[in-house]
Write a structure and sequence with these properties.
It is a single chain. The chain is an alpha/beta fold. 36% of the residues lie in helices and 24% in strands. The chain has helices at 12-19, 58-79, 99-112; strands at 5-8, 22-25, 29-35, 44-51, 84-90. A five-stranded mixed sheet has the order 1-4-5-3-2, with helices on both faces. The two termini are 13 Å apart.
Length: 123
Amino acid sequence: MAAARLGRLPNRSDFLRVQAGRRCAMPGFVLQTAPVPAELGGPAIRVGFTVSRKVGNAVVRNRVRRRLREIARQIIPGSARADHDYVLVGRQGAIGRDFLAMKAELQEALRRLKALAPPLATP
């Protein structure tokens, strides 16, 4: 099976819709998820990223955002449900957090939110 493509959440209204959904807080980020509306269903899993100014200056926020994008690129296409949108909100703890620990935390957050893709049946 080919992994689903990652898309972007383009509009503020999409971020607000996902914010009203389910969430799971981890030390380096908060994962928010909500089902995709029927009229927006598409081939890509859509993901948004945001980091508040409370986390640090622009250099720090961009670094956190890059790390979140990379863990999402590695984990979400193979593990997350395609009928949901996701938002990763960077936290202060993401700055010095181990990358492998953040990957494991994303997998755990998906499990807690019941957003893991169903396992494929093997013949």
